[in-house]
Specification:
This protein is mostly helical. 58% of the residues lie in helices and 0% in strands. Helix 3 crosses helix 6. The mean pLDDT is 75.
């Protein structure tokens, strides 16, 4: 028997050095990724909400109820409360809610000029219609808004009364009420 007879033939791949895949240009492969994967990456990097998260934000602003908004946005019912808070605390959702609230503030521009003009218009209309109570109330609110009725509630500086003057004033009041020493004298009855 020769040594050559004891050799077992190995498949052609066995024994060859394994070649690692080319990881160079991994970023290029990312660009060739499906559109939904690219959109997901962009949303994550730029804090952009998914359509369902956007719906959650809109529903949240209706009543500021996290669980209710989660349900109305179409999320699954399993573990609704826990999942609702996860969605609510997502950075993209928080950013979008802040944007929507800021937009809402800007839509409700209530200025000093608008308030004054409104009070004045209401007061004049009520007065011309003979509704003096409404006119008075509108003028009163306008005056309060403008700070016209600030009263000085601070008393003028007076020295604090001492014990002797307090006792003297108390004795005078008791005497005028017919009470001596804090006790009203009993009337004598004639039998």
């Amino acid at each position: 028997m020769s040594n050559d007879d004891n050799k077992i033939e190995l498949p052609s791949r066995v024994g060859k050095k394994y070649k690692k895949p080319n990881t160079e240009g991994f970023e290029r492969q990312d660009k060739k990724a499906p559109a939904h994967a690219r959109a997901q990456k962009e949303r994550k990097e730029n804090l952009i909400c998914t359509p369902q998260q956007e719906q959650f934000c809109q529903e949240y602003l209706v009543d500021f109820n996290i669980v209710g908004a989660h349900e109305r946005a179409g999320y699954a019912a399993a573990s609704r409360q826990t999942n609702a808070y996860h969605v609510f605390n997502h950075p993209a959702v928080q950013k979008r809610i802040r944007e929507l609230l800021d937009a809402r503030k800007n839509d409700n521009d209530v200025t000093i000029e608008k308030v004054k003009a409104s009070f004045l218009r209401i007061a004049e209309k009520a007065e011309s219609e003979g509704n003096y109570a409404a006119a008075l109330r509108a003028y009163e609110n306008l005056g309060k808004y403008l700070g016209m009725f600030t009263e000085n509630t601070k008393q003028p500086d007076k020295p604090a009364p001492d014990e002797k003057s307090i006792n003297g004033e108390l004795a005078r009041l008791l005497h005028s009420l017919g009470m001596v020493g804090g006790v009203k004298p009993e009337k004598e009855t004639i039998n």
